[in-house]
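Q: How do we represent a protein-ligand complex in a form that can be generated token by token?
A: Start from the inputs.
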Amino acid sequence: MEKIKMTTPLVEMDGDEMTRILWKMIKENLLEPYIDLKTEYYDLGLEHRNETNDQVTVDSAMATKKYKVAVKCATITPNAARMDEYDLKEMWKSPNGTIRAILDGTVFRAPIVVKGIEPCVKNWKKPITIARHAYGDVYKGSEMKIPGAGKVELVYTAEDGSQTKELVHKFDGPGIVQGMHNLNKSIESFARSCFTYALDTHQDLWFATKDTISKKYDHTFKDIFQEIYDAEFADKFEAAGIEYFYTLIDDAVARVMKSEGGYIWACKNYDGDVMSDMVSSAFGSLAMMTSVLVSPEGYYEYEAAHGTVQRHYYKHLKGEETSTNSVATIFAWTGALRKRGELDGIQELCDFADRLEKATIDTIESGEMTKDLALITTIENPTVLNSEGFIKAIAKRL
Ligand code: NAP
Ligand code: MG
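Then emit the structure tokens for the protein with magnesium ion bound:
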């Protein structure tokens, strides 16, 4: 069989621990036998980040701007324990944070739905993708404890020195106060990323805020989404037969619970933080969740939503058998290969991504799976495979 040819490289960001082991197995067993894999390789493993003073992370993000599509393995975000373990020069920042700051994107998280791993919400038949705005609000807020009676005001001082004030509250006893902000520019890129991704994946887009109560703050989010939709996306949505739908956050929550799924739910920063944990756990497992960073310019970085599975890696190092789920990492690769195929007009690459996803899902649905899924499946007497055995079982089907 002739291997599928690629014209433009993918940016390949290797990572750490158990996911680094899976990464190699996936390439050897599922990709390289079928594709003449063209990648520009960046080793984001913690050792190499430390050697390069984290320059490699910046370089990999710049390469993503150049080639437009990247696939990333999970990486360690250093903490105090990692400083000693890896003898680090500095407590390097989270690679995901660094990459997101350079590409200015929105992260979309979607569950991988298979028969036999049933969502807790029984009417959810299709995935619900959460798009979380990742700038500002309470995450960049400033707060004060108010010790006793007094007045709290918001004060805006313009560059010419003129001031605008707004009373927050006249306290007659102790209390608390919080100030937060967002930027029109950031909300605009969030909106564009969401509309672009909805067109890309051919799904409706839902957006919700508390604009009835927050008539300036949340209402600005609503207005910016609507303005960008009307000016840049309405025609495209109509042509694609998909819908943009705005509603109040309480209404959205109620509708989500009663829906079948199959849409993108755009959330403000805090809503997205809270709701993505609810949605992902209701769908079954973090190991069955993909994540893609989409920049407003149309750069894509695909990864698994879980971490480096450290506990399994330590077992692996001791020579013990592991049963680590590689599905989300496989889907990071298929997402990136499909996008590469679309951008370069290589239909074979898109078809291959479809086939690999189908082989993965069919393997699980036929009862062969890793331990994490065997514990929650409704399939009777599942066969529990080890990390490598599961990838080999997929390869056999492929
Ligand atoms: P984790 O790697 O997601 O693992 C937490 C636990 O979830 C595991 O111990 C395992 O449970 C289960 N799990 C997660 N993924 C699994 C998989 N593919 N197959 C089977 N079980 C899976 O989170 P963590 O242990 O908190 O973090 C480890 C490292 O990952 C940290 O250094 C953190 O900085 C990093 N991290 C990176 C990213 C990223 O790069 N995007 C994201 C999150 C965390 P059992 O042990 O019970 O089997
Ligand atoms: Mg959270």
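Residues 273, 277 surround magnesium ion (ligand 2) (CB under 6 Å). The CA atoms of residues 278 and 301 lie 24 Å apart.
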